[in-house]
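Table S2 (continued). Query chain:
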Amino acid sequence: MKRRIIIMNIIIIFIISFSKVNASSIPVWSSMKISSNSSSLNIIDDDSLNPNAIAQTSGKIVTVENNPLNLTCGGAVLIEQNSGTVLYDYNMHQKLRPASVTKVMTILLIMEALDSGRISLTDKVPCSEEASNMGGSQIWLDTTEELTVDEMLKAICVVSANDCTVAMAEFLEGSEDAFVAKMNEKAKELGMNDTTFKNCHGIDEDGHETCPYDIALMSRELLTKHPTIMNYTTIYMDSLRDGKSQLVNTNKLIKNYDGCTGLKTGSTSVALFNLSASATRNDLSLIAVIMKAETSQVRFAEARKLLDYGFSNYQYKSLAIKNETVGIANVGKGLKNTTDAVFKDDFGLILPKSNSQEIDQKVEIYNNISAPITKGQKLGEVTFSNNGENIGTVDLISNEDIEKYGIFTMSKKIYTNWFTLLRN
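Corresponding output:
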């Protein structure tokens, strides 16, 4: 009798499972209003914020005329870190000498090597004669001395050590010249069209130049792609060589500006005073670049002006969170009949705080989806719009693999169900 019951259960399971294979998929559409207390990948501007502001909802720039912050430096820019949206432009494409802000690119290449596994933080880095004789900002490396990559990074980020910078360049590419070639390749890749690097440290050299916007580009790349660099750029005081070498950050904003996350100072008698300053408050991350300020105090004061302007006037709200479930997709001919449709990427919006407009969200989940389904496969998309104008689209993907029904997979499922019945 028990064997007969088991056989009947298996037949019932088979019939139910087979009937589910032919279940039709239904397209899913939805539309909802999102409060405009938001902000990020694009900007919906509001004339009440600034009568001179020009809104570009489909672009990534808001131009502010007449330099209302009265900046006195040679050039400056303020961008939102995650999207690269320009919030304030003052001669941002003016070619100027970067001094040690050059090291943002050097640090970026070091972090790429670290995150790719090419090098590790515990690797020992030797010091050449050339590195030990660099001069300028340094920790007085000796040719008989080896520091770890971790210690080198700390010295470069905190006290802008030229000797450590050259030592790392030689360690990664064999020579400073070869490393500088990599710097210029990366600059081209990032669209830094006004930049030419002649060295890896920033000591004045004819033809070694960049602009505020390009510095913002490489700063953004570093902070967004390699966020662990903030473990170093947020250090205010530390030491090396068992406490014998004291380090104090050249970026004074680390100590006295709320939310400061870095990034790099630079100054020479020709370049004057430069700074790439980054900060995050309430999920809004900003990068302010100041070039050719007359004094160190001016560069910090004007960076503060830019950051304060950004935090006072703009806000960020996340509209899509990576891997967040948006809906259910019906799946035909699979071992499962449905799967979650999740956001492929993060997406958000930058808005002026005074903005009262609403953002529409329309969700489309495809119909006629059939197994096999692979994790990461596109299942639909979400479109964000304002007043009928598209401001962004995020793909919806599967968060799992789903096998197609077949003799083997069907038998496997029946066996699993049969085994479960026996256990019960």
